[in-house]
Every structure is written in C-alpha cells, then in structure tokens.
Amino acid sequence: MRRFSRIVYRSCSYSGANEQDWLTNPHGVAWQPLVDVYERPDAMVIVAELPGIDKADIDVTIEGSSLSIKGLRHKELPSDTQRVHQMEIAYGPFARTVDLPVYADFEHVEAHFENGYLTVTIPRAAGK
C-alpha cells in the first residue's frame, strides 16, 4: 500500500505538501476549485465549481484588486471503513484568487450559490 501511495503522490501535484503529509492526512492538503472568468458589457463574472460544499463553508472576500474564494470540503469516512481503495476527490481547505479589473465596482458585487456553483458578478463602475 505504501508503494502505491508513493506512486499516486508522485503522479499528482499537491503543492505545499510532502509525501508523508499526503500519506498520513490526504484530506488536509489544500486544493483549488476550477473557475471560469468572463466579461460581459456590464460586468465581470466568476464561476467557481464547488460541488459537495455547504454554503456556510465558503468565504468570498475582496482585498485590493483581488477576489478570494476560500472554504472547506468536509469528508468523514464511515467508522467501519477498513481500507480505502481509491480516493480522487479533493477534501480539506481550498482557496482560489482572481485578479479583478480596474473598472470593477466593489460596492455592488453579487454572489449566488446554487447546485455546487458559486457565481460572483462584479459590475463595471460608472464611466469605466
């Protein structure tokens, strides 16, 4: 099992973790959700894919000219689990940062979470 875990660890790029961390606590490794970022004539839209995450575990903040999405995906194996044969879904803390354009109106940002997708809409400031 240890040899298999080493092979899996080497084939994946878990930044910030060493092999021992991943072997002993695979759920504690940070991961980044997939995002789509696009512009409309009136706004920039960011859509983050966050399936299996409770709305209460998501934190969206704007600092300077960056939008940060942080949170936690919980995973608890059933108490009677004897062995894990395959685990591909990322669990634990996550974070993703997106740079915002200079035209952003930070006072009127809207966020909506539905069906595992977080949509953040940042309107253009008047006159920009």
What does this 3D model show about the protein?
By secondary structure, the protein is mainly beta. The protein folds into 2 domains: 1-26, no CATH class; 31-78 and 86-123, Immunoglobulin-like, CATH 2.60.40.790. It has helices at residues 2-11, 19-24; strands at residues 35-39, 43-49, 58-63, 66-73, 92-99, 110-114, 117-123. The strands form 2 sheets. It has a 4-stranded antiparallel beta sheet, with no helix packed on it. A 3-stranded antiparallel beta sheet has the order 3-4-5, with no helix packed on it. Strand 1 (35-39) and strand 2 form a beta hairpin.
* Global outline: elongated
Low-confidence stretches: 1-25
The assigned CATH architecture of the largest domain is Sandwich
Residue fraction in strands: 35-45%
Distance between the termini: 58 Å
- Gyration radius (Cα, Å) is 18 Å
Helix and strand succession? Answer: HHEEEEEEE
- Largest sheet features: 4 strands, antiparallel
